[in-house]
Amino acid sequence: MINENLILETINMIKLYNLDIRTVTLALSLRDCMDSDVDVVCKNIYNKITHYAKNLVEYANEFENDYSIPIVNKRISVTPISIVGEACKNPDYVKIAKTLDKAAKDVGVNFIGGFSALVEKGFTKGDKLLIESIPEALAQTERLCSSINVASSKAGINMDAVLKMAEIVKKSAELTKDADGIGAAKLVVFCNTPGDNPFMAGAFCGVGEPECALNVGVSGPGVVRAAVEALGKDKDLSELAEKIKHIAYKITTTGELVGRKLADKLGIPFGVIDLSLAPTPAIGDSVAGIFQAMGLEHAGAHGTTAALAMLNDAVKKGGIMASSHVGGLSGAFIPVSEDAGMIEAASKGYLTFDKLEAMTSVCSVGLDMIAIPGDTPVDTIAGMIADEMAIGMINKKTTAVRVIPVVGKNIGDEVVYGGLLGKAPIVPVNKLSSTGFVRRGGRIPAPIHSLNN
Predict the structure, then answer these.
(1) Cα radius of gyration (the chain)
(2) What is the DSSP string of 49-87?
(3) Percent of the chain with pLDDT strictly greater than 70
(4) pLDDT (tens digit, 9 = 90+) per residue, 376-427?
(5) Handedness of CA 359, 362, 367, 370 (dihedral sign)
(6) Overall average pLDDT of the 65-87 stretch
(7) What DSSP element (H or E) covers 330?
(8) Closest CA to 351 of 297, 314, 295, 389
(9) Which residue, 17, 143, 220, 267, shows the most beta carbons closer than 10 Å to its own?
(10) Predicted pLDDT at 17
């Protein structure tokens, strides 16, 4: 039977509380595009992307209208390009980057991810060449995103890669200093990166993925906040967690319905549903706002990490109840620049860099979209990356670092990117030196629990 209350509840989720499908991401293997001639590789890449993705935006817009639920982003993720370009006699990864960007523009997607390499245990020739090309590639493209995996719970932490990526982050920001270092905003360093993640900047098509699949990312922090507020202050935390779980179930069901129908129309397999509470700068669409609804004065108060842990777990439990194909980064994101409540908390000093790092031990990603002074040393950035990789490695979870050293700006200044990337205050960082540690190089061994086969 049709339940009028459920219909009204779904309408309110969309119209009043910013429920949306944050992204539909076409994951596409480019392994058959390899060739010894880079020009042939570029031609193969362009032809394959434009063939498979030619209807993605059109069909997504149709479903958005049919179901009256916003599909905010349409994206593409591809095989790690370090692998694709490695067969070339004279690899030109910047040329490949421009090809990816042109293909993305021509099919109308917002971003394309996969300018990536997996180097947790060491580098191949292609990995090194791609990593060196990242700053130039990001500076000369508009829609390209890059990610590098430098650690895993099975392999440990490649500290040579950590230091190299700190240099690359810094250079990427410097080459895009006229746009407040936006190159670094499109670059993320991972531990335990998933190959089916639909969210940027970390999306790529993993080597174990099919030829093509549609991965869907659903978000609804505003919906969760409204549900928590409606529950009342007299309910205990167990009841609160149960309510969040039920809301997550409903959000996941909605996203999977649209995702599966869109995949069918595109004639490709449905991949995963990623239920991640990914906020936006819009008022009412904030993960930090959920903490306040739970009873904290603001994000950053003592108890914030516990509140985030409960939220993240309840969201995952609700999602897995709704679907057998939950994947990606499901949980709660805490990007500073993309969350109105986090922006306010960081601006007022309630959220410090160290508190954000502590929160990453229980969130679904890591240190995300944090603007730091432009004169922050490379070795300090390497220390930040190493710390975050250690949290992921030990806890067997995905963690990541996306920090932006904004050239010419310091504590008290602000950067404004607009759109989903939002704005962020420049936050202070620890002034103590990390040099003697991060420049030792080598690999931090995997923890003992990696021997679990």
Answers:
(1) 21
(2) HHHHSTTHHHHHHHHHHHHT--EEEEEEEES-HHHHHTT
(3) 96
(4) 999 999 999 999 999 999 999 999 999 999 999 999 899 998 887 888 999 9
(5) negative
(6) 91
(7) none
(8) 297
(9) 220
(10) 59
Amino acid at 352: T
Q: 225, 329, 355: which is closest to 284 by C-alpha?
A: 225
Long-range contacts of 56-64 (CB under 8 A, 24+ apart): 56/24, 56/26, 56/107, 56/108, 56/109, 56/266, 57/107, 57/108, 57/109, 59/262, 59/265, 59/266, 60/24, 60/262, 63/258, 63/261, 63/262, 63/265
Nearest to 149 by CA among 199, 95, 206: 206
Looking at residue 4, its pLDDT comes to 47
How crowded is the C-beta side of 320, counted as CA atoms within 13 Å? 11
What is the token pair recorded at 191? 């531990």
Q: Which amino acid belongs to residue 232?
A: G
pLDDT at 12 over 90: no
The two tokens of residue 155 are 């392999």
Dihedral-angle region of residue 363 (phi above 0 means left; psi in -120 to 50 means alpha; beta otherwise): beta
Query: Higher pLDDT residue, 270 or 330?
Result: 270
Query: Any idea which residue has 């008290």 for tokens?
Result: 412
Which positions ≥6 away from 190 have C-beta within 8 Å?
A: 147, 148, 149, 150, 151, 202, 392, 398, 399, 400
Residue 296 Cα to chain centre, angstroms: 26
Residue 218 is inside which H or E element, if any?
A: strand 212-219
> What is the distance between the alpha carbons of residues 76 and 203, in angstroms, rounded to a whole number?
8
Cα(373)–Cα(138) distance, integer angstroms:
20
CA distance 68 to 91: 45
